[in-house]
């Protein structure tokens, strides 16, 4: 696993051994950043279920101003911190250890882009998206992106989120959502 572009391009990232984590494949990550690249300069990025931090690190490398990583596994939290040091991006980030969605409580920031990649088929996908909405963690014009299994259905409330794009990669789907209030404002 490596950083694809930007200030830390080519850096190889540490990952956790075993199959417990599922890093975002380079092909999926490259496509994701081709889609959202224009949103990254000076953006506040939230990387949930962060694993080794590859997605948030890519965002920082490509110009995001700040990234908050949240991951429940203590070993992965250490790996994220090591990867930030390896890429020279530690001054642009904060890493928190905690179980989602509970770890979102108390956040005072709003984010321009929220990325979440929970374990496939996990109820945490739905509960975390609900918590993001309740806490207004996304700026009004922000973008929420979920990486999930194609069989994961009905995990976001259509009254609160509007689907703007989906990209499929075999069993994996990237779903791009905006708050319905922002989508309604653009139609007027």
Instruction: Summarize model confidence as the mean pLDDT.
Output: 90
The CATH class label is Alpha Beta
The whole-angstrom Rg is 15 Å
Question: What name does CATH use for the topology?
Answer: Rossmann fold
CATH second-level architecture: 3-Layer(aba) Sandwich
- Please, how many domains? 1
Helix content: 25-40%
How many distinct beta strands?
A: 7
State the low-pLDDT regions, or none. none
CATH superfamily: Vaccinia Virus protein VP39
Biggest β-sheet, characterized? 7 strands, mixed
Order of helices and strands: HEHEHEEHEEEH
Specify the overall morphology: globular
- Counted by DSSP, the helix tally is 5
What fraction strand? 25-35%
Instruction: Please state the structural category.
Output: alpha/beta
Widest beta sheet: strand line-up = 3-2-1-4-5-7-6
How far apart are the first and last residues' alpha carbons, in Å? 43 Å
Q: What do you see in this structure?
A:
The protein has 188 residues and is of the alpha/beta class. The protein has one domain: Rossmann fold (3-Layer(aba) Sandwich). It has five helices and seven strands; from the N terminus they run αβαβαββαβββα. The chain has a seven-stranded mixed β-sheet with strand order 3-2-1-4-5-7-6, with helices on both faces. It is globular, with a radius of gyration of 15 Å. It starts with 25 loop residues before the first helix and ends with a helix. The model has no long low-confidence stretch (mean pLDDT 90).
